[in-house]
Structures are given as structure tokens and as C-alpha cells.
Amino acid sequence: MTFFLIVTLNGLTLAALYFLAASGFTLIFGLMRTVNMAHGALLLLGGYVGFEVAKTTGIWPLAILGGGLAAALVGAIIQFGILGRFQGDELRQTLASIALSIIMADLMLWFWGGITYQVAMPDALAGGFRLPLLGVGYATIRLVLIAFAIVVGIALWLVIAKTRLGAIIRAGVDDREMLRALGFDVAKIFVVVFALGGLLAGMAGVVAASALSISPGTDLQFLLSSLVVVIVGGMGSVGGAALGALLIGLAEQYGLAYAPTYGVVFTFAIMVLVLAVRPQGLLGRSEA
Amino acid sequence: MPVSYDHKAANALEIQGVGRRFGGFWAVKDVSLTVRPGERRAVLGPNGAGKTTLFNVLTGDLVTSAGTIRMDGADVTQMPMHKRIKGGLRRTYQHAHLFNGLTVRDSLFLSVCGVAGGWQRFMPLRLNDGAVAKAETLAQLSGLSAELDREVANLSHGQRRQLEIGMALAENPKMLLLDEPAAGLSPSERPRLAELLLSLPKHITIILIEHDMDIALKTSDSVSVLHNGQLLAEGTPENIMSNEAVHKVYMGGAHGH
Amino acid sequence: MRTAFYLLPLAMAPLFANDFWLVQILGRALSLGVIALSLTFLAAYLGVVSFAQTTMAGVAGYTVAYFGPNTVDVGYELPFYVILPLAMIMATLSGALIGLIARRSQGIYAIMITLAIAVAFFYFTRQNYSVFNGWTGFSGLRAPDIAGINLRAPVPFYLLCLGVAALSLVLVNGFIKSPLGLTIQAVRDEPKRVLAIGIPTTPVIVAAYAFAGFIAGSGGILNIWLQERISSFSVGLGPIVDILVIAVIGGLKHPIGAFIGAIAFVLLDTFAVDFIDRERFNTLIGLVLLAIIMGAPDGLHGLAKSWLSRSAKRPAKIKT
Fold first, then answer.
1. What are phi and psi of B233, to 5 degrees?
2. Interatomic CA distance for residues A231 and A244, integer angstroms
3. Residues B80, B107 share a domain
4. How many residue contacts between B and C have a Cβ separation below 8 Å?
5. Which residue segment(s) compose the domain that B204 sits in?
6. What CATH number corresponds to the domain at position B184?
7. Of B243, C42, C105, C280, which is most buried, counting CB atoms within 10 Å of its CB?
8. Residue ranges of the ABC transporter domain (chain B) (predicted)?
9. Does the ipTM surpass 0.85?
10. Mean pLDDT in consecutive groups of 10 residues from the start of chain A, 288 residues
């Protein structure tokens, strides 16, 4: 029973990480129909920058912020300089973002090398935490991670539901032409949203580098998890990303614990099942 | 009206309480209609009356939210679209949905294969393939003989409408649903369309959405008027033209055109 | 015929090219080109960019590895005349299955779903030892002797690659003119209308993917005979992206683009080391890809075509 609960907790941790990674991806997709294949590279960049900030300043929250801002800046540059030129040509955007992710991954490998990095955490988070009821220790950072994901989720929901930017995003998801007709500078909004997506990815990268570790390959790992999460949850829906992350995170950990050889099959089976029953994803809206 | 038809007993189309909902909005609500074999029925109504949605439900482009649809006496409410097509139903679209990357010949050829079978063949075609000959006949019928080898993307608007009809006529349809076939045609092209419609074999049941009153009334022998998704009136063209309620919602709304 | 025009110098290559060029440049480019051709076919005629072509090629490769001679203790050896058809059938079936899963997805959705399938297969091969032998995979794979010809020797192997490449191009060009091929293009243009002429779309899409699986499978077999090994890395993200890069660089609009892209890719891969640090090859290929996407969306084939038509027009134009 304890084992099961620990596995569940591990699943929730992983789900939190997947949600953080996928939320920015789905946000960008939701508004501009851009599949940003460089999302994983932004996440890894955030992780590396976060590591550097933590090393220099020793302040963990500053590392999160620094990693997030670095990825936000690069994201904005990508949208402004390259992807924004082909707005509406989704296939070309997707291919261009693949090219960018190849370049970014290689340059990061050049700069940071092939070794594994872990962001140093404040002492308060570094240790374990004795869980009430269960009576077992659990890494504090993982619990913080779950809390962080919930906070980000709520903040994102508030931004989308309550703010002007959120209203624009919601309107844009329904009808991008309408935004243009209403006189909004759509290109600028897209850059802002891309930066927001980058911010989320970068912060997720620092968190991943703290709770686990990062190295070349982490970018692809999180790009793929984000893909699966949004396919399952529904593309463009933040709630869907949360649901998808929960399903995939738990499935992966249960798979790892109870059927280690075929863990990946569970994830895959969930995706195929969802596609068969609801091609638009669990909380996604039909394109037709 | 003398009609010779295989299924004398059955109506060509019989729908009962048919509705289609989008979210909380009923685009078509509680519509019941009966169309006899060989009848020419015009469906009129202002924009947004639910005419095209009704067509989409009849063909299976959209699933029905309520009611039953019977064609030739058989319940087709749950039948997938391609099977209804095999059963003799054809349609054209208001905004032409055509195979832009194919030639006129190939488009008509596939329309024949879709109903008669044979689209699954993966060996290159023999020159004397029967379906190709039928495609060429269809091109003649729809006035596209000179354009057989042109890519559909390069056709003029009028030619695209002709191709829509040509594809719908493949393999002896029993019932044709024509969604504004005259839309976007020049005044000189319109009489030719009316002529084409009148020349179609008399056993084909035709249901026609058309804003061009001239074409609609000339080619049909009965009229149904939709308003806000519901059936407002039904009758002969003369009846409808003198109907007060119809005048109010439809003819009144026609000022804007 | 135009095909013969291109084929003749290639068929005579063994007369003047050395073994390295025959096998490592031309043979490799042709076998990668065949796999990329399956992607270009889907992109040009079904309108779907599939990331799962390496997976279909890998299914054929793994079948040959499992049932053929290898130096790991996994598998069950069968004669080659059973293995080869079996591998092609398996690749075709894998294509059909992937098509069935992705049948309702178009455009960017299809990209995401085929990518997810491909990577799931990669992880599966890495974790499964009974059939795929985990991340070590199979080594010591050898092309057979057929009718007394040793297919491992450079010239026969090169000619085999050339033959398979030419045959698959002919096959694609014939298939797209068949009724089913036309129906596939109709689904690309207007899936709704395909239903409206009485044709269900699912079997059409599945057939297109299955055909792509067949083509990819033949390239996959050539590829493992060339590499003499297959492992999870052969179906991992690296090769998946390579095939995409090849198809995009060459041009997704026309089947020949796959081979143009493959030649360009292999030349770059082989000789870039003379210009830049070997380690930075990915940056180079990324920049080339980005330049092509931004400047020439129809790839090298599109560029060549527009240059040819421009230079053909030039004499008629008089500068004032």
C-alpha cells in the first residue's frame, strides 16, 4: 500500500513537471496554431541558464526567474524573427521550429557540453519531508514541484480568464481574423504569447533541473511528453494539458513500477485510445 | 403528375421531426417533410434559415440531433454518408468543394467509381476503362467536354459549378440535393443552368436551395419555406408567392439583396 | 523517357566511381532516398507529413535482422526468400496500422501523432529484449547471395540500391495515376467531398500509409544491409529527423525531391567535416534546413525547376 502511494506521488510529481512543460506549448498552439517543436530546446535553455544563475547568486527563486526570462526572450525572438513571417502556414512554421530546435540543441551542447547539470537548491528544499499518515520520507522539492505546478496552473487560468491579454487570447482561439478586424496588432500579441510560452518552458526547465537533472536529450524528452500530453488532453486547452499530464504522468510511473518492460506501451495505449474515441483530445474542441 | 418509379409505394424522402443542434442553438428544428419520387422541390428561406444545415443532415455531412430520415422508405438516419450516396443520393455544395489537384476527367471518373465501385484498384488504368467513358459522358452533360484535361484549380467559377453538377450526376442518381447551384453565376450563365436542370431525367427527385427566384420557381413544382430553422410554409410556387407569412419573413428580408 | 536520362549515368557509375563513392555516398543516398520517398509520397499526395517513415523502415529492418543471419543470439533463421517478402509485408502492415491510428489527423496534427508513434516505437525497441534485443539491437547483418551474386560486394550492392530506387519511383508514379492513387489525392484536396461521391475515407488513408510503408520497408532493408546493424538508435529521433530533413531539403512536392535531398544530405554529412568542426554538423544541417524552409519552401527540386523555367524564358526577353 505504501509502495502504491509512493508510486502515485511519483506520478503526481512527474505530472506536475509534464504540465509545466506542456502548458506553454498548448498556450502557443491554442492561440496561433503553431506547433513549436523548439519548445523542448527552450525548456533546456531555461534549465541551463537557471543553473548558471543559481551558481552565481545562490538564490533559487532568482534561478527560476532567470531561466524563465531567458527562454521567454529567445521565444520572442523566434516568433518575431522567424515563425511570425509564415503566420498561417502552419506546416512551414512547424518545420522551421524543428530546424531551430536542431540548431539550439547543438549550440547548447557546444556551450554546456554533454554533462548532466543539477541546480543547487536552498537547504529548506534539499532534504526530505516526513509525510503524515504514511510515515515515509519524501523529497521536499518534489512536493514543492507539485505545489508550484498548481500555482502556475491557477495563475495561468487567472491570466486567461480575468485579464485583458487573456480575453484577447480567448477571442483569438475562437477567431483570429476577428482579432485583426478589431484592430489588434496581432503580430505583437503573438510575440507576447510566444514569450509567455517560453517563460513557462524556461521555468519548467529550471524546476526539472532542480528536481531531477538536465542534459542533452532533456529537450526532446520534454518536447515528446508535451506532445503526448496535449494530444491526450486536447490541443490548445490548458485544462486539457493538466488532465493529460496527470494521466500520462501517473501511467508512466505505474508502468515503471508494475510493468517496467512495457511502461511506454501504457502511455502509447492511452494516446491511441483517446485518438480513437476523441480525436480532438479529452478537453479539446473539434476542428470541424 | 405522372411518375414512373421503382418504389411506387415509398416516398423519395420522408423526414420527421428532424433537428440539428450546435451547442445550445437549434440550426434546424423539428422539420418534417415528404417529397414524392420525381418531385422538384425548392427550399427557400432567408440567410441563416437552416437550409444548408438541413441538406448537411440529409446527406450525412452532419449527424442528426433529433428525428428520423427515410429515403425510399428505408431509415437512413444513422447511415454514413458514403452509403447514402451508394443508395442514390447526390449533392452539390454551395461553396464548391472540389478536388483542386485533379483534372476534370479524374474528378468525374472518381465520382463514377465512388458509386459503381472500382476506386480501390491500384494498377494503372486501362485505356478502355468503362468508368472513363462514363466520365466523358458526364462532362458532355455538364458542358465540360473541352475542359476534360484541365486541372480543377484552373477552372472558372461557372465551370466549377458545372463540375459540381456533373459529379453529382454520376451513375444515375435517384435524388439530387443542389445547394445554390446558381450562386456566383453571371446573368448569361443562369438560363443555361435552368435549362440543364430542366433537361434532367424526370425520375430524378431534386431538392433545390436557390436564391435566384427565377430559377427556383421555373424548375420546381413545389416549395418549402424555412425560417429560423423551422418549416414556415409549403405549397405550389403560386401558393407560396401569395403567402402572407412568407412575404413578411422572406420577401421582406430580400430588400438587402 | 526522362527517367532513363537520369538513370543511365547512375547505372554507369561503377565504371568511374570507387567503392567508397559507390557504397558510402551513392548507395547510402539511394537507400535513404527510398525511405524519404515514402515521406514525400505521403506529403505530396495525401498531404500529410509523417514522422513515422523511419519506423516503417525499421520494422522491415528488424524483421530481416530477427529472421536473418546476425551475430547476437536472438531470432529464428529463415531462408532469405521467405524473409524479404515477410519484411515487406510487415512494413506494409505497420504503415497500415499507423495510418489507422492517424487517419483522422491532418496537417500539424498528423505530424504530432506520427512523431509520438515513432518515438513510442523507439522506446519500445529499447525496452524489449525478446524481439528487438533492447538498445544493443542486432549486429552482423549480412546481405545474402542471390543467384550467385554477392550483394555485399560494392558494385552489386550499389546496383541493387539503384534498382530499388528506380523501381520505387516508377511504382509511385504509376500508383498515383491508378484509381486508388487518384482517390488518395482527392482525400488530400477535399476529404468531405470524397464521402459525398460515395467513397469512405478511412480505407483510402490506410492504403496510402500502407503503400508508404511498403516503400519505406524496401529502403529500410537496403539501409540495414549497408549499416550491417540495427538497434533502437536506428529508429530514434536522429534518423527520424534525418529523413525529414532529406525530404524537405529535396522538396515535398515531387517524388524525385527525396533523392535530390538524399544526395545533398549525404554529401553534406560526408564532406562538411572538411569545412567545419565535425561536432557542429547539426548546427550546419539545421541552418541549411532553416534556409531552405525560409527561402525555398519547395526545396532544391523547386529551386531547380524555377531556375530552369527562368533560364528557358530568358532568350525571349529583351532587356531594354
1. -155, 160
2. 8
3. no
4. 96
5. 9-88+173-256
6. 3.40.50.300
7. C42
8. 13-253
9. yes
10. 85 93 90 88 96 92 95 96 86 91 94 90 72 70 88 90 81 70 80 94 94 89 89 86 93 85 78 82 70
